[in-house]
Amino acid sequence: MSVAPSADSTNAHRALESRTNAPVVRSISVVTSPEATDIKPDLEPRAYARTLRRILVVLVGVGVAIRIARLVIPSPIWGDEAMLALNFIDRDYAGLTQCLDNAQVAPILFLWGERFVLINLGTAEWAMRLIPFLMSVGGVFLFWDFARRTVSPTATTLAVGIMAVSVWPVSMAATVKPYASDLFWSAMLLVLAVRWYQRPERLWPLIALVAAVPFALGSSYPVVFVAGAVSLYLLPVAWRAGRPAQALFLSYNLAMLATFAATYLVVGQAQIDPDAGTTGSFMRWYWRNGFFPDSVWQWPLWFLQANTGRMFAYPLGDSNGGSTATTLLFLMGVWLSWRNENRSLLIVCLVPFALNLVAAALGKYPYGGCCRLSQHLAPAVCLLAGVGWASVLERCAPRRADRLGLVRWAAGLLIVLGTVELVHRCIKVDHDQISRFGAHLHNELKEELQPGDRIVVRNMAACDATTQWYLKRFGDRVIDLHPGDALPPAERLWVISTAANQSPQDSHQKFVESAKGWQPVETFSFTVRPDPADGQDVWWYTAMTCLAHPGDTRPPPRLNVVP
């Protein structure tokens, strides 16, 4: 409560001033409302940004740690990986430019890189997945640089956090496929483009673009959509720039077109050549959901499903509208970027979608369908979804101090999602029953094989791709025996017969009995049952007999493979 000064006290003060001729400081009481006393000072912008950087470092660290864990987890090579990886064993560098086995399509530089790793580091799971791992980790850091140069600190933190722990980018880090390269090279081109766009007086980012685009298009097929968007994005800057910059910009476009034409005509066409195999028709059937439906009336629903399905599964999501939340945040980010006149960013983010859609209309590359095929769009999805998410937090908490608490909760949620997925992968190490059987069979045989032993596979082509991969890892010790071929010389022979949906036991036993000069030591039978959760319905039967010369006194082998 405030008390006003009385008349007597005022006169006393005046008398004191007149006698001492000295000023008197009067006490003034300020009347304040209860609401005014509750107002707290907001967090300084620098302190807010500094804390966000710390959160961002933690998110990136968690993302890298999850990827490292996925690399070192002893997860067997599974069917989709094995079908591509078999080409690295069976073909040399020149052979990888032709139509690949098992209806596979992959960019040539990725194929050559994997072949180089196989020759120099071996066929271990971590070695075959090393290139995707490096591409995935590098993609996170490149996207971080791209985001911090284009959007607010809050949006950067959330966007990079989404990228760091999302299921698909993380899983592609431990998959022998080129999808992690799609993300890496897309982020690389975007970073270099933004650097030159913001500082056109510096030519080194443009020089780096000219040098990088051949490697990008040679390592990733869909990155051409991003490369085209970068050209359109930089066109106004190049138009106003000097002749050196214009010459470099022209060189970038020529390099992009020349590399795309070379990779498509020389390698891409060969991989889908109908005279060399059925890869082209199979791929169009396999990814049919990523192409326009036959009926025009179905196009709107197809487009809606594609843009709310797995293509937008960041950090989580699924088909049939399972990624609608991320799509809404993405659209909010698009609207905010347009309203805030950050429209040049929309060019580099949205044009790849448009070009991909044109390719889908031409039947050349699927639009949506699966998130792994859309890793080249991951930077745009995560960035604009981060912008949309940041705007939601800003509306909920206008004060920076309050907003920081929400960002911490969001970061914690992302870390939990990434950790839960990693724990799930640690519990379910094997992708399916076949991959587990193939890996265990390889490990058991590796322990039992002695110098001079050889493995004879009766009709290798009848085996599933995973079992083929793990058997061919033994190199020259494995013989693909066709009808009429003679048994090779060896100390002991391990004869393997495999069949799908029927037991090869009878034919296997007849073959063993007909092997002159050999006697059976031990016979093993395995049955791999399909896992309904994996959508498989093929039963695989394997019979294996160890043959030895008469008089061989070595103890019989023991295999503990559990199909």
Protein described:
By secondary structure, this protein is α/β, with parallel strands linked by helices. It is 59% helix and 7% strand. The protein has helices spanning 7-20, 34-38, 45-72, 79-90, 108-121, 125-128, 130-148, 153-165, 167-172, 179-198, 204-219, 223-240, 243-271, 279-286, 299-307, 324-339, 343-361, 378-396, 400-427, 433-448, 465-472, 505-513; strands spanning 454-458, 478-481, 492-500, 519-528, 540-548. The protein has a five-stranded mixed β-sheet with strand order 2-1-3-5-4, with helices on both faces. The longest helix has 29 residues, at 243-271. The radius of gyration is 32 Å and the shape is elongated.
Please count the beta strands (DSSP E, at least 2 residues each): 5
Shape: elongated
Written as H for each helix and E for each strand, in order along the chain, the element string is HHHHHHHHHHHHHHHHHHHHEHEEHEE
- Residue windows where pLDDT falls under 50 for at least 5 positions: 1-37
Q: How much of the polypeptide forms β-strand, as a percent range?
A: 5-15%
Helix content: 55-70%
- The N- and C-terminal alpha carbons lie at a distance of 84 Å
Neighbour order of strands in the largest sheet: 2-1-3-5-4
Average pLDDT taken over every residue: 89
Count of helical segments?
A: 22
